[in-house]
C-alpha cells in the first residue's frame, strides 16, 4: 500500500508546484458549460432540460484534456522507465497515478458541478443525483482514459488519436451517468443506472490498471 | 516412447504460412461465389413477400449478415491479437491487422442498411437506442484500432498496442448482442436463437443463413488477401520474400 | 415466382430505393475492397522485384 500512497503524494506535490496546468482544465469545464446557453439560447426550460447532458459532456471533454498529462511528463524525463524497472509492482504505481489524476481532474469537477447546475437552474434533488453520478463516473473516466494515454505515449498525433480511442469507451459512462439524472427528473427509478455505473467502476478499477500497465510496458520497450 | 506431437506452431512463421495462401484464397473466393449465388437466389426468388413489410424486408439479407460479421470479425481479431500478445508471434498480429478494415466495412454496412431499412419501416433513419449506439461504438472501435496501428511506426509495438485496445473493446460485443433483450427499444428482438425455433418463415431464414455464409467466406478471402500483402510488406527484408516474387537468386 | 416482370423486380413493391441502396452499397464496398488490396499487392511485388534486382546487381556486378 505504501508505494500507492507514495505515488499519489508525489504526483500531487508535482501538481501543486505547477498549478496552472490543472487549473486550465478546470476553466475549460466552466467555459464549455457557458458555451451551451450562448449557443442554444437562454430559454430556462430548455437549459434545465439539457443541463445534465451538458455537464456530463463538459466533464468528459475536460477529463480527456488532462489525460495526456498523466504519463507524458514522466515519459520524457525518463522517470517512467525507472518506474518500470523498479522492484515495486508497476500495477501499484500506475494505480497511484490514476488516483492522483482523478483527484486533480475529476474531483474538482464533482465539486464544481453543483455551481454549474445552479447556473442552469437545476432543482436540488436532481443536483444531488448529478453529483453522485459524477462521483461514480469521473473515476471511471480517469481509469479508461489511462489506457488510452498509455497506448498513445510518444505517438505522433497523440492528442487527437487519444480522443478517438477513448471516446467510444466513454460513451456507456455518459449514457448511464446522464441517464440517471434524466430518469430522476422523469420520476423513474435511478437505482439501475447507479448499479451499472458502480459495476463499470469496479470492472474498470480492476482491469484498467492491468491494461494500462501492459500498455506502458509496450510503450517503454 | 516415440510419439509425434502436433507442431502447433509450424505455420506460425510468415515464411511457412505464405505458400498456403496461394491455395486458400481462390478456394474461399469460390465458396463466396457459390453462397452468393444461392443466397441471392433465395433472397429474391424463393423468399416470399412479407405480409407486413412487403418487399422492403429483403434488406434483412444484407443487414443481418453484415451485423453478425461485424461482431464475429471483432472477436476473431481480438483472439488473434491476444494470441500474438501471449505467444509473441508476428503472424498473429498481422492477422489481426488484416481483419480490422473488413470488420469496419461490415460495421458500416450494418449501420447503412439498418438506416435504409429503418426509414420506410419505422419512420426514422437513425435512433439512439442501445443496439444502434453500441454498433456505432463498434465502428468507432475498429477505426480507433486502425488509427492506432497506423500511427505507431514500429510494427511490433503497433501489434501489441492494438492488441491491448482490441481486448479492452471486446466487452462491447456482448453488449451489442444482448442489448435487445436488456433494453426495450426500437430495434426488434432476436428472431434467431440457438435454443428456440426461429420465429420467421423458413425460406427467409435460409436466405439469411446462406447470405451470412457468403459474407463469412468473403471476409476470410479478403482477410487472407490482405494478410498476404501485410506479410510481404513487413517481411520485405527477408530472402524468401524477395526470391518468391523477384528474380531467382 | 415472386416477380411477374422486370419492372416489378426493380420496384420491390414500392421499396425499391431502399432495397437497392442497401444492396448497391454492399456490392460497391465488397468489390472495392479486393480491388484496393490487389493494388497494394501489385505495389509490394514491384518493390520486392526491384530490391531483388538491386541485390543481384550488387552480387554479379554490371
Structure overview:
- The complex is a heterotrimer of chains A (221), B (249) and C (62).
- Chain A is mainly alpha-helical and 221 residues long.
- Chain A has one domain.
- Chain A has nine helices and no strands.
- Chain B is 73% helix and 0% strand.
- Chain C is 82% helix and 0% strand.
- The longest helix of chain C is centred in the middle third of the chain and has 45 residues.
- The mean pLDDT of chain C is 87.
- Chains in contact: A-B, B-C.
- Chains B and C meet through helix 2, helix 3, helix 7 and helix 8 of B and helix 2 of C.
**Helix and strand composition category of chain C:** mainly alpha
Rg from Cα of chain C: 24 Å
Distance between the termini of chain C: 70 Å
Shape of chain A: globular
**How do the helices and strands follow one another from N- to C-terminus of chain C?**
HH
State the end-to-end distance of chain A: 27 Å
| Oligomeric status | heterotrimer
The total of beta strands of chain A comes to: 0
Largest sheet geometry of chain C: none
Main interface by residue count: B-C, 42 and 34 residues
Total helical segments of chain A:
9
> What is the strand content of chain A?
under 5%
Low-confidence stretches of chain A: none
Largest sheet of chain A: none
**What is the residue-mean pLDDT of chain A, rounded to a whole number?**
89
Order of helices and strands of chain A: HHHHHHHHH
Mean pLDDT of chain C: 87
The count of helical stretches of chain C stands at 2
Shape of chain C: rod-shaped
Which radius of gyration of chain A do the C-alpha atoms yield?
18 Å
Per DSSP E runs of 2 or more residues, the count of β-strands of chain C stands at 0
Brief synopsis:
By secondary structure, chain B is mainly alpha-helical. Chain B has helices spanning 14-46, 60-87, 90-122, 130-151, 155-169, 172-182, 202-234, 239-245.
Structural features:
heterotrimer, A: 221 residues, mainly alpha, 9 helices, 87% helix, B: 249 residues
Please describe the topology of this protein.
The complex is a heterotrimer of chains A (221), B (249) and C (62).
Chain A lengths: L1 H16 L1 H22 L3 H22 L2 H9 L2 H7 L4 H30 L4 H28 L6 H28 L5 H30 L1
Helix pairs in contact in A: 1-6, 2-3, 2-6, 3-6, 3-7, 3-8, 6-7, 6-9, 7-8, 7-9, 8-9
Chain B lengths: L13 H33 L13 H28 L2 H33 L7 H22 L3 H15 L2 H11 L19 H33 L4 H7 L4
Chain C lengths: L5 H6 L4 H45 L2
Amino acid at each position: 500500500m505504501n508505494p500507492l500512497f507514495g505515488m499519489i503524494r508525489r504526483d500531487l506535490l508535482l501538481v501543486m508546484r505547477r498549478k496552472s496546468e490543472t487549473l486550465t482544465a478546470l476553466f475549460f469545464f466552466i467555459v464549455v458549460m457557458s458555451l451551451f446557453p450562448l449557443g442554444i439560447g437562454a430559454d430556462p426550460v430548455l437549459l434545465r432540460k439539457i443541463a445534465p447532458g451538458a455537464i456530463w459532456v463538459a466533464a468528459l471533454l475536460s477529463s480527456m484534456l488532462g489525460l495526456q498529462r498523466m504519463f507524458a511528463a514522466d515519459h520524457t524525463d525518463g522517470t517512467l522507465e525507472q518506474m518500470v524497472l523498479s522492484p515495486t509492482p508497476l500495477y501499484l504505481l500506475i494505480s497511484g497515478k490514476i488516483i492522483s489524476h482523478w483527484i486533480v481532474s475529476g474531483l474538482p469537477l464533482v465539486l464544481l458541478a453543483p455551481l454549474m447546475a445552479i447556473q442552469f437552474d437545476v432543482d436540488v434533488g436532481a443536483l444531488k443525483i448529478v453529483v453522485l453520478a459524477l462521483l461514480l463516473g469521473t473515476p471511471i473516466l480517469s481509469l479508461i482514459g489511462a489506457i488510452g494515454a498509455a497506448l498513445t505515449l510518444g505517438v505522433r498525433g497523440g492528442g487527437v488519436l487519444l480522443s478517438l480511442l477513448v471516446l467510444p469507451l466513454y460513451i456507456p459512462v455518459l449514457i448511464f451517468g446522464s441517464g440517471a439524472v434524466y430518469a430522476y427528473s422523469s420520476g423513474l427509478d435511478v437505482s439501475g443506472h447507479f448499479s451499472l455505473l458502480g459495476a463499470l467502476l469496479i470492472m474498470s478499477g480492476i482491469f484498467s490498471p492491468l491494461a494500462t500497465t501492459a500498455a506502458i510496458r509496450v510503450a517503454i520497450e | 516412447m516415440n510419439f509425434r506431437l502436433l507442431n502447433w506452431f509450424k505455420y506460425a512463421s510468415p515464411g511457412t504460412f505464405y505458400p498456403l495462401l496461394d491455395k486458400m484464397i481462390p478456394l474461399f473466393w469460390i465458396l463466396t461465389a457459390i453462397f452468393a449465388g444461392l443466397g441471392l437466389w433465395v433472397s429474391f426468388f424463393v423468399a416470399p413477400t412479407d405480409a407486413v413489410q412487403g418487399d422492403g424486408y429483403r434488406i434483412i439479407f444484407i443487414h443481418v449478415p453484415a451485423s453478425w460479421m461485424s461482431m464475429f470479425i471483432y472477436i476473431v481479431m481480438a483472439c488473434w491479437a491476444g494470441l500474438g500478445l501471449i505467444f509473441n508471434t508476428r503472424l498473429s498480429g498481422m492477422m489481426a491487422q488484416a481483419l480490422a478494415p473488413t470488420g469496419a466495412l461490415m460495421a458500416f454496412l450494418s449501420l447503412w442498411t439498418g438506416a435504409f431499412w429503418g426509414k420506410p419501416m419505422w419512420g426514422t433513419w437513425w435512433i439512439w437506442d442501445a443496439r444502434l449506439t453500441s454498433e456505432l461504438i463498434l465502428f468507432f472501435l475498429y477505426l480507433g484500432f486502425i488509427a492506432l496501428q497506423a500511427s505507431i511506426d514500429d510494427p511490433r509495438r503497433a501489434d501489441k498496442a492494438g492488441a491491448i485496445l482490441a481486448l479492452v473493446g471486446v466487452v462491447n460485443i456482448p453488449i451489442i448482442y444482448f442489448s435487445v433483450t436488456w433494453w426495450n427499444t426500437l430495434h426488434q428482438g432476436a428472431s434467431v436463437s440457438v435454443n428456440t425455433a426461429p420465429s420467421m418463415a423458413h425460406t427467409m431464414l435460409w436466405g439469411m443463413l446462406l447470405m451470412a455464409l457468403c459474407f463469412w467466406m468473403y471476409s476470410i478471402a479478403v482477410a487472407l488477401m490482405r494478410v498476404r500483402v501485410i506479410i510481404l510488406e513487413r517481411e520485405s527484408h527477408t530472402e524468401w520474400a524477395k526470391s518468391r516474387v523477384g528474380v531467382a537468386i | 415466382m415472386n416477380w411477374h416482370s422486370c419492372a416489378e423486380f426493380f420496384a420491390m413493391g414500392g421499396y425499391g430505393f431502399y432495397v437497392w441502396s442497401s444492396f448497391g452499397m454492399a456490392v460497391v464496398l465488397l468489390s472495392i475492397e479486393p480491388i484496393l488490396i490487389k493494388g497494394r499487392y501489385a505495389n509490394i511485388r514491384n518493390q520486392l522485384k526491384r530490391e531483388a534486382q538491386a541485390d543481384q546487381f550488387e552480387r554479379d556486378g554490371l
